């Protein structure tokens, strides 16, 4: 699996309220397609272009299967990072940085996004463009818009694809990409292409599948649109003391570097990168790797909502920018997927909102773990262990 976006958080607005879109999901396929066509025409699309787009749409069961298969996100940070980051991928990133240096300079000048940040996304999403997904994009978006899990996300993207098609930049029969509808080298959804697409090579079109300048400039503009702040860092590895108030860790707490230093937190190499409010991240508890996350780190969650993916992408961006390999520490062993589900059920039974019982250590599960660690007198570091499972 070379692209790992969840297609979550990228839709900044919707054409209809979520309740109205929910009512239009599921049911008869033909009626659903007709409803989409009617809405597209109501938005100002050419009726003939709309008919041409929707006439060949079909459901793709492989898309639904992929949507429900997210086992890779059950891995802990160290395992996930080692799976995605290889010497070959790092070396290729350095080669691509040199090859497209002028484009990266333009991206940084215009949008404030450093090369390493875009290189990391480019690497993880499509292996620098070598595998961009082979799902028919129009069918994927239609399938997910019809499915009642997240129509509020995918129906607007399907309508945006119709608009792109009318503009001549999308072929509903031939355009392919990821299972969740993302297109091109850095995997952008249709609406994001309309809002942030950039003709980086000056040919009059935005072609994210075949033009690296188009893809990189568009990705940079989108990150700026999502809130990236020029000239500021995003992630820095740190060392933590043997003892401190671990409840301060997590994205909910932001302190200045001087405050972290007063508690014994220090950069693993070099100096503090900025005097900005920052959070201490302990992805595998207080005995594992440790990072300081600056405000730009939060922009990653607008690209993807998986904490493990976000941290790995942000860390790889620092590696591509010259940072050393992180220290994995000696964390307590984590839980298996089934053990995590067991923990989530126990937490839910105690009244915690952990979301889906999916074996993934998401934000809801982390918050519940912290609450129970505090109640039981354990280090409040949000890292679920067998000891916590047994105590519950």
Description:
The chain is mostly helical and 392 residues long. It has three domains: 1-225, no CATH class; 235-320, no CATH class; 337-391, no CATH class. It contains 18 helices and six strands. The strands form two sheets. It has a four-stranded antiparallel sheet, with helices on one face. A two-stranded antiparallel ribbon has the order 1-2. Helix 5 crosses helix 15 and helix 11 packs across helix 12. The protein is globular and about 65 Å long. The model is unreliable at 1-23 (pLDDT under 50).
Question: Which key features would you list for this structure?
Answer:
single chain, 392 residues, mainly alpha, four-stranded antiparallel sheet, two-stranded antiparallel ribbon, 18 helices, 47% helix, disordered N terminus
SS class: mainly alpha
Shape: globular
Model regions low in confidence, pLDDT < 50 over at least 5 residues: 1-23
Spatial order of the strands forming the largest sheet:
4-3-6-5
What's the number of structural domains?
Answer: 3
Element-by-element helix/strand order: HHHHHHHHEHHEHHEHEEEHHHHH
**Mean pLDDT over all positions:** 91
Strand content: under 5%
- CA radius of gyration is 22 Å
């Amino acid at each position: 699996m070379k692209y790992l976006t969840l297609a979550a958080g990228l839709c900044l607005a919707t054409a209809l309220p979520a309740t109205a879109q929910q009512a239009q999901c599921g049911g008869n396929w033909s009626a659903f397609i007709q409803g989409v066509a009617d809405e597209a025409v109501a938005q100002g699309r050419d009726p003939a272009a709309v008919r041409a787009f929707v006439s060949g749409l079909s459901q793709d069961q492989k898309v639904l299967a992929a949507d429900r298969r997210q086992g890779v996100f059950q891995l802990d940070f160290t395992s996930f990072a080692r799976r995605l980051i290889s010497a070959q991928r790092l070396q290729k990133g350095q080669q691509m940085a040199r090859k497209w240096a002028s484009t990266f300079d333009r991206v940084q000048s215009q949008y404030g996004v450093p090369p390493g940040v875009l290189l990391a996304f480019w690497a993880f999403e499509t292996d620098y463009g070598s595998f961009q997904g082979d799902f028919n994009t129009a069918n994927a978006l239609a399938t997910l818009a019809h499915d009642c899990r997240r129509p509020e996300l995918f129906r607007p993207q399907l309508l945006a694809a119709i608009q792109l098609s009318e503009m001549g930049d999308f072929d509903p029969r031939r355009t392919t990409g990821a299972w969740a509808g993302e297109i091109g080298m850095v995997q952008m959804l249709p609406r994001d292409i309309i809002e942030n697409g950039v003709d980086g090579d000056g040919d009059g079109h935005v072609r994210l599948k075949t033009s690296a300048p188009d893809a990189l400039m568009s990705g940079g503009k989108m990150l700026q649109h999502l809130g990236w702040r020029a000239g500021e860092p995003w992630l820095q590895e740190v060392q933590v003391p043997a003892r401190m108030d671990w409840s301060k860790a997590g994205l909910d707490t932001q302190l200045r570097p001087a405050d972290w230093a007063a508690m014994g937190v220090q950069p693993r190499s070099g100096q503090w990168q900025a005097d900005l409010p920052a959070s201490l991240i302990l992805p595998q508890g207080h005995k594992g790797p440790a990072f300081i996350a600056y405000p730009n780190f939060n922009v990653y969650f607008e690209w993807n909502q998986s904490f493990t993916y976000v941290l790995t992408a942000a860390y790889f961006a620092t590696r591509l920018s010259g940072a050393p390999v992180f220290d994995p520490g000696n964390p307590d062993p984590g839980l298996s997927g089934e053990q995590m589900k067991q923990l989530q059920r126990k937490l839910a039974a105690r009244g915690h909102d952990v979301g889906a019982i999916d074996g993934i250590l998401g934000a809801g599960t982390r918050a519940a773990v912290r609450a129970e660690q505090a109640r039981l007198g354990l280090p409040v570091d949000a890292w679920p262990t067998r000891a916590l499972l047994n105590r519950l």
